[in-house]
Amino acid sequence: xxxxxxxxxxxxxxxxxxxxxxxxxxxxxxxxxxxxxxxxxxxxxxxxxxxxxxxxxxxxxxxxxxxxxxxxxxxxxxxxxxxxxxxxxxxxxxxxxxxxxxxxxxxxxxxxxxxxxxxxxxxxxxxxxxxxxxxxxxxxxxxxxxxxxxxxxxxxxxxxxxxxxxxxxxxxxxxxxxxxxxxxxxxxxxxxxxxxxxxxxxxxxxxxxxxxxxxxxxxxxxxxxxxxxxxxxxxxxxxxxxxxxxxxxxxxxxxxxxxxxxxxxxxxxxxxxxxxxxxxxxxxxxxxxxxxxxxxxxxxxxxxxxxxxxxxxxxxxxxxxxxxxxxxxxxxxxxxxxxxxxxxxxxxxxxxxxxxxxxxxxxxxxxxxxxxxxxxxxxxxxxxxxxxxxxxxxxxxxxxxxxxxxxxxxxxxxxxxxxxxxxxxxxxxxxxxxxxxxxxxxxxxxxxxxxxxxxxxxxxxxxxxxxxxxxxxxxxxxxxxxxxxxxxxxxxxxxxxxxxxxxxxxxxxxxxxxxxxxxxxxxxxxxxxxxxxxxxxxxxxxxxxxxxxxxxxxxxxxxxxxxxxxxxxxxxxxxxxxxxxxxxxxxxxxxxxxxxxxxxxxxxxxxxxxxxxxxxxxxxxxxxxxxxxxxxxxxxxxxxxxxxxxxxxxxxxxxxxxxxxxxxxxxxxxxxxxxxxxxxxxxxxxxxxxxxxxxxxxxxxxxxxxxxxxxxxxxxxxxxxxxxxxxxxxxxxxxxxxxxxxxxxxxxxxxxxxxxxxxxxxxxxxxxxxxxxxxx
Length: 776
Prior knowledge:
The chain is an alpha+beta fold.
């Protein structure tokens, strides 16, 4: 038995429960409580009141017999058994569960709705090229050294220390990102670090299975930090097969403890209630990949999370604010990070409920959030709470990484290409826009129009502190210091999937490779019966399918995607981004084809030899998107371009290694209008590329190989508001002295046209990303 099970603790169950356990089968109940892989029928200790079919109860001598009666009754969807009285209640409605030691209950269908795309085991994917270099920069920067000096990680209560108090979320946050970083890079030092943290956490598991500090004073908030912890442990089990059994035993035991506690202490109006979908994701993974005979208990726990969690679907579709939330109206519902996580809520619920309305609500909800609060870098205004789309309002780093993950999950579950497009835009623009190139410092809030990054006692952001836009160790609040690491590795691990037709899908075009075991391919092609294999393949093993995505995208426009070792005719699905309307492709060196449908999946079958190579030329065009007050943002393909601002740097504090707090002030002008023909932007804007240099960090301002030559005119009267750039003047604007000035009756004093270079947004610290504009 697993150490720390409630059945073996001094707080043993009641006499009636022990008798019931004996009648049901003590080992089966013990397995359900402790996460050991012994099959059991139903969920011991759980009742479902009401919803009975006529003529109840009937006689059944065991839970298995009751389940069989339900299976034979056409309208029966759930059942409850009282083994002590040989009674059985068949249900025609799935009613909410409740804790009752006398009963065993079950639902007839505990499977999940099939997602559009199928997860690969972690450890199957490996980044290469600049993507690996970028991940290595994260490892060598701040996030990879927090264990060396930052108290909330180094001296965490999760490993026996005294820091990381309050919600106890910071160590789980950090592990949720850095476990993947360590194993994707195969960095033995970092793997040893996360191994030690996992060992220390499991060694402190409570007798009832609860993981981590047992702080009952938190009430419903106590569950929240365990959601990212469970996601982290599930990642660890996949990356580290030798530890999988031990880690997943502990995770199952925790889920059981959480379920029992939730009957007594519901999530309520708490961080846990707002973020329940991350707990559901973890439980759904166990149910789908590693149920260990606990399928009904896992389903019941997911159902508790679903029903006790916030109703985000109603909020997003009916009650979402259409503008900035005043501080007096700040709630957990309009909290930006909660919103970023909750964008996937409807999709996660859909897998459990199978109700298409949940999926539809997820689509409509995310569309509404970006309609009313969207910003050009791909996320939304949320300087703690929803902030509208004015480009000087902030976006929290936690919101960036959570929204990116939500978009990847929405794509995986629902299949809409637009979700993968948005994940791409967020990670390739907003993520690095909030980090220094070395990743030794980050902001709490980034601004699309960021003319400075300094301490501001008077500020445009609504509820965060004066240091919220500094670059540093933990400006404003430490949650983003711990949570920032998850953004990049989760993007990598959601880049290639399996498909329902037994193929593979390339969701992201950045350089990486995947190796897929013959066992997993057989599972896909055999109808996906039973739990999906979750351990990574033995590299180079016979029968493995290898998918390779090569090139330097987005620093080059061409991508090569190859598949080897596949069954003959195995389909290769490739995301064609919505912005790639003029793309072309070749198959195995043949004649150019296309354009393929943009915003859809191109499907190419492998040949008879199980191999195929697709050369994709994305051929992006320069595009203008207009937002707040008609301000223009410039894009070419996946990348957003901005007007960079020269900076002067002031170091405020020094910590460990290269960790500092820094203030940036503008050392060049920022008040400009773009001069552009919006209907033909490539007539006004000229793209150039020096080509990426292997081994050189491409996101640094001085090594970024891409730029767009543009014409601007100064706007000296575009000033400041609350120490940030004021809202951009309404566009298209008319400059004094232009031909239309007399006709329009109002005009702006503008300087003479001058040439500037726009650079990718992610390669800037200070910039203007949403520019007022005037026609040539």
